[in-house]
């Protein structure tokens, strides 16, 4: 692997949905009024507990990262932190299938 274009880094970003106010103006029963209204080309998800979960990471990897890198020369190196949500058997198997090193 001798090309920077084959090296990727990812990390989740958290956004607090709690504010100092006790009222939110949004159509009921929406808790996250902007969840489906992001800028074009963005992808995001939420979890009930606010933490990264294995299924959310797997869906991002399968439906976002793999299609994004489909034309990138292989192998690809994807740098991750050590969170357990990144370490499932199905994610590792899918990475191997697509010649992606985690």
From TrEMBL:
GO terms for molecular function: nucleic acid binding. Residues 28-91 form the DDE-1 domain. It holds the Pfam family DDE_1. InterPro entries: DDE_SF_endonuclease_dom. It comes from the Eukaryota. This is DDE-1 domain-containing protein. The lineage of its organism: Eukaryota, Metazoa, Spiralia, Gnathifera, Rotifera.
């Amino acid at each position: 692997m001798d090309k920077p274009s084959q090296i990727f880094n990812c990390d989740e970003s958290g956004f607090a949905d709690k504010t100092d106010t006790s009222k939110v103006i949004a159509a009921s029963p929406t808790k996250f009024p902007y969840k489906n209204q992001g800028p074009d080309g963005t992808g995001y998800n939420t979890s009930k507990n606010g933490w990264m979960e294995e299924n959310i990471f797997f869906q991002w990897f399968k439906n976002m990262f793999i299609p994004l890198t489909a034309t990138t020369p292989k192998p690809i190196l994807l740098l991750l932190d050590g969170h357990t949500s990144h370490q499932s058997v199905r994610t590792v198997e899918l990475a191997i299938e697509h010649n992606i090193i985690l």
